[in-house]
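Morning F.,

Quick status update on the modeling queue. The single chain you submitted on Monday has been processed. Sequence for confirmation:
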Amino acid sequence: MSSHPPCGLYRTTRAFDSIPASRLVFFHDHGDPGPGIYLPRTWNLNRAEWHERGTTVLDPAWTRTLERVPDEGLYRVEAAFTCCKDACNTFEVGQLVQLGYDGDATPILFVPEWSSRGLGFPSHGSRLDRDRLGKLTPLRVARGAESPRDSMAH
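Structure tokens below.
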């Protein structure tokens, strides 16, 4: 049994090697030569794509300092809320939103738009205070064969 956290999206809370605190990483608890963290190399449709080579982290004490963040993807707004204390943007109950992150693990909400061409995803969104994430419920969406996470799957 591994004493590392499960595979998934995290925010670093302590620096490791050349990776500073407060970075978005994908932690993979197995592989060659061992568990490691991967940094985003780019974004596609507001989702991180990860470097193929990560940084091996053998110390479970350090990996337990990682802060789990909700997965990128589509969500439903369960209770109306604003993006931050300045109330720049309001999100309404039942609204469809896409959750993504920047490299500093700041949550960003993108509001998909329905048009004659179908559902579109904007390239700009609203940064959120982390305490607002609890107002979102993930939607189940079928994952296509070209899913960017396939290379990191168990």
